[in-house]
Amino acid sequence: MSSIQVINTNTKKISIKLKGVSLEYANALRRICLNGVPVFAIDTVDIIENTSVMADEDLAHRLGMIPLKTELSKFNDPDSRVMFILDSGDIETTKIVTTADLSSKDDVVKPVSDKIPIAALAPGQRIKFEAYAKLGRGTEHAKWNSANISVLTNTEKNDEHVLTVETTGALQPEEIILTGIDELGKRLDEFKEKLGNLNEK
């Protein structure tokens, strides 16, 4: 009989004990928790003005790697988009533009911290852009990873493993686990259906 037991948890990390679960299934869950749970990340950036020393491509890449808080229950449409705006304005003294300067059009989907640096500007330099975040999975690009760490360790007992997941901050650790379990179930059902279709041919 399989069961799940929470060993310890906090706002950043959770460890659970999987009992009666094969190594293959446990490892599949580990991988899904790392890069198979959808989260928001900035995917498209329209640069309006950029007179900083940072190239447009580098600025867009940095924005894409900013973890964004995600509420999966609110966004059922995988094509959902959230708009972000940043205008540094006229800079009179050297300034580090951070995620505190990044304005989101959604109340939930925002950077996990307002202290993440985006660009360093010297007097007279300016950055202004519109950016769009969408849901994605880490299997497509690492910027959509829902976890920084997803580690599986074996115990001394057969079919008993400990899964530890550390969130990027986009989702609560327990939400990653629960969504990962649902995702694994869906994938197994799809696999069984494909096998059934093969047997019918």
Description:
The chain has helices spanning about 25-35, 55-65, 175-200, and strands at about 5-10, 15-20, 40-50, 80-85, 95-100, 105, 115-120, 125-135, 145-155, 160-165. The chain is an alpha+beta fold. It folds into 2 domains: about 5-35 and about 145-200, Gyrase A, domain 2; about 40-135, DNA-directed RNA polymerase, insert domain (RNA Polymerase Alpha Subunit, Chain A, domain 2), CATH 2.170.120. The strands form 3 sheets. The chain has a 4-stranded antiparallel sheet, with helices on one face. Strands 3-8-4-6 form a 4-stranded antiparallel sheet, with helices on one face. Strands 5-7 form a two-stranded antiparallel sheet. β1 and β2 form a beta hairpin. α1 crosses α3 (about 175-200). The longest helix is centred in the last third of the chain and has 28 residues, at about 175-200. It is elongated and about 65 Å long.
List the helices and strands and how they pair.
Elements lengths: L2 E7 L3 E7 L3 H13 L3 E12 L5 H9 L16 E7 L7 E4 L4 E2 L12 E5 L5 E10 L10 E8 L5 E8 L5 H28 L1
Antiparallel strand pairs: 1-2, 2-10, 3-8, 4-6, 4-8, 5-7, 9-10
Helix pairs in contact: 1-3
